[in-house]
Write a structure and sequence with these properties.
The structure is a single chain. With about 350 residues, this protein is of the alpha/beta class. It has 2 domains: about 240 residues, QueA-like (3-Layer(aba) Sandwich); about 80 residues, Beta Barrel (Thrombin, subunit H), CATH 2.40.10.240. The protein contains 7 helices and 17 strands. Strand 9 and strand 10 form a beta hairpin. The longest helix is centred in the C-terminal third of the chain and has 13 residues. The protein is globular.
């Protein structure tokens, strides 16, 4: 299977540049993962497609203002860093631009020296390790100097930084938002809880693994970058109980999916666990954790499109995307959503 098998043509005007005024007013395309049958709705009507006892699993990671722009102390050349992963202490793995201007020992100054970064190692694909030097609290300084790391296909300035954050964001550490969760409001979550749906939180700090493009023809040769995840004991116990009772587990977002499937492929049941995952889900993958997925519309040839194709099929997903394009759904981070599930009620014979 090749990367080009997951390509499709998208009119540029369908790439959502700004979030809607009301999060839950996004459109929702419900897809039967087995038949490919489609139904259109609005995200605020999501409870109509859930039932008591179902589990919704949300990623509670919180995006940091991870993009910072400074200058080399010696030459004053402008340098941009995107913080991806806190490896230890004040050492971070960052995506750098321009990569060629940096060398081990280079000092980069941000905010007139309020924050400095020393390059300690150069890696592949534009990645560097830097050690940050500062006085005070790092995240407070980052809040003042950094900006939200919006994807490159978004050209409009985000007026309200909180709109690139889920309303339930809690655990600081992401370089990008788990965008399937952007559609939820506190009111919608309350409505879902009140109808007897169990809401469970996991954490995956979104890094390079989620949004790095696939640059090989044979998708099996693609290597995912590692991302840090956490599943606590209460969540693991609740998920085990749901599976034993035959209740549906629906992941909100590909990041939640990757946490759950990482753990269920590591252990015979859900278990409290944390660590780094490089799981790459593409057609042929055997799902052990989830029964369905709420997700946004993903970039052509991306690992995320491959993941949703694995849950149904490449043909059915691309057909659904063609339908969404024809119906002028909004795509990508600030766009509309899909709910891939067993849509039709199945009666026992």
């Amino acid at each position: 299977m090749t990367t080009n098998d997951f390509d499709y043509d998208l009119p540029e005007e369908l790439i959502a540049q700004t979030p809607l005024k009301n999060r839950s007013d996004s459109r929702l395309l419900i897809m039967d993962k087995d038949t490919g049958d489609l139904e259109e709705s609005i995200f605020k009507y999501l409870p109509k497609y859930l039932k008591k006892g179902d589990c919704l699993v949300l990623n509670d990671t919180k995006v940091i203002p991870a993009r910072i722009i400074g200058e080399k102390e010696d030459t004053k050349a402008v340098i941009e860093l995107l913080l991806l992963k806190n490896t230890e202490g004040d050492v971070w793995e960052c995506l750098s631009r321009p990569f060629k201007r940096l060398h081990v020992g280079t000092i980069i100054s941000f905010g007139d020296g309020r924050l400095k970064a020393e390059v300690t190692a150069k890696k592949e694909e534009g990645l560097v390790l830097v050690h940050f030097l500062y006085e005070g609290i790092f995240l407070e300084i980052l809040d003042q100097l950094g900006t939200m790391p919006l994807p490159p296909y978004i050209h409009e300035k985000l007026q309200d930084q909180s709109r690139y954050q889920t309303v339930y964001a809690k655990n600081v550490g992401s370089a990008a938002a788990p965008t399937a969760g952007l559609h939820f409001t506190p009111e919608l979550l309350t409505e879902i809880k009140n109808m007897g749906v169990e809401i469970i939180y996991v954490t995956l700090h979104v890094g390079l693994g989620t949004f790095r493009p696939v640059e090989v023809d044979d998708i099996t040769k693609h290597k995912m970058h590692s991302e840090f995840y956490i599943l606590n004991k209460d969540a693991a116990d609740a998920l085990n109980k749901a599976q034993k009772e035959g209740r549906k587990i629906y992941a909100v977002g590909t990041t939640s999916t990757r946490v759950l499937e990482t753990i269920r492929h590591k252990y015979p049941e859900f278990k409290a666990d944390s660590g780094y995952t490089e799981i790459f889900i593409y057609p042929g993958f055997q799902f052990k954790a989830i029964d369905g997925l709420i997700t946004n519309f993903h970039l052509p040839k991306s690992t995320l499109l491959m993941l949703v194709s694995a849950l149904s099929s490449r043909e059915k997903i691309l057909k659904a995307y063609a339908y969404a394009i024809d119906k002028k759904f909004r795509f990508f981070s600030f766009g509309d959503a899909m709910f891939i599930k067993e849509h039709k009620i199945k009666f026992d014979k």
